[in-house]
Amino acid sequence: MKIPFEPSRSFCYHFARYEAIPEILERPEVAGGEPFRLIDISKLIIDEHLSPAQQATMLKKAHSDREDSVVQIVKFFIPYIARRTEQLIPLGNGMFRLPTESDISDEELDDAAVEEEDADADEFDGSVYAFSFPALVKDAAPFPIKIGMTTGSVEDRVERQCKASATFDNPLILRQWKVARVGAVESAIHNVLRSRGKWRENIPGAEWFDTTVDEIESIIKFISS
User: Fold this and answer.
1) How would you classify the pairing of strands 58-60 and 67-69?
2) Residue 113 pLDDT > 80, yes or no?
3) Which of 20, 50, 70, 151 is the Cys-Cys partner for 110 at CB 3.0 to 4.6 Å?
4) What letter does residue 63 receive in the DSSP assignment?
5) Residue 84's pLDDT is what?
6) What is this structure's pTM?
7) 3-class SS letters over 76-130
8) Are 154 and 127 spatial neighbours (Cβ–Cβ below 8 Å)?
9) Under DSSP, is residue 190 helix (H, G, I), strand (E, B) or coil?
10) Is residue 96 exposed (0-12), middle (13-18) or buried (19+ Cβ within 10 Å)?
11) Tens of pLDDT, residues 48-82
12) Where are the domains of the chain?
């Protein structure tokens, strides 16, 4: 899938997801199932498709004076999307491998299908959830909240995520919402909060936003109305 270059963060996301990652997965050193250094293969793919001038193009972050180059943004999105869609398993120190059957449960297969954003996946019902940790919670101001989705048990999903992240506090599930087309709803919430400059992009993990439960709920109500 050839994506025409345009100087935008949206291009960087779509290039990473629909062009770079599929090509990475087809590389012999990846397809064989052995561990590999993702950044090295990512650089090869990026260099094949984007000229030095395109890679060096600077993009301003919304609601901020910060600028990042196209290559920096693409290099961020590739591992972020690969982990989030569970197409690759992180091993630490920049190393990844393909998932095996033992890595993926039936529920996670459903969640992965939802992530694919095709017509069938959009039909999955499930739960959007918001959780944080007690030390981060504030009563009357935004604070870091992870917003995710699952087609199964929210409690099991959050527990599994926190175990994988080696956290040192018990997560606090703030609220969960049963919705139709859960993948599309979750994506819409993320996009609205990103447009408001609330995405915490430079932290371990993904899907964290400086927001409130009321703000999340208002977005869900708007989407569902």
Assistant:
1) antiparallel
2) no
3) 151
4) T
5) 84
6) 0.50
7) HHHHHHHHHCCCCEEEECCEEECCCHHHCCHHHHHHHHHHCCCCCHHHCCEEEEE
8) yes
9) helix
10) buried
11) 999 999 999 999 876 667 889 999 999 999 998 99
12) 9-99, 111-224
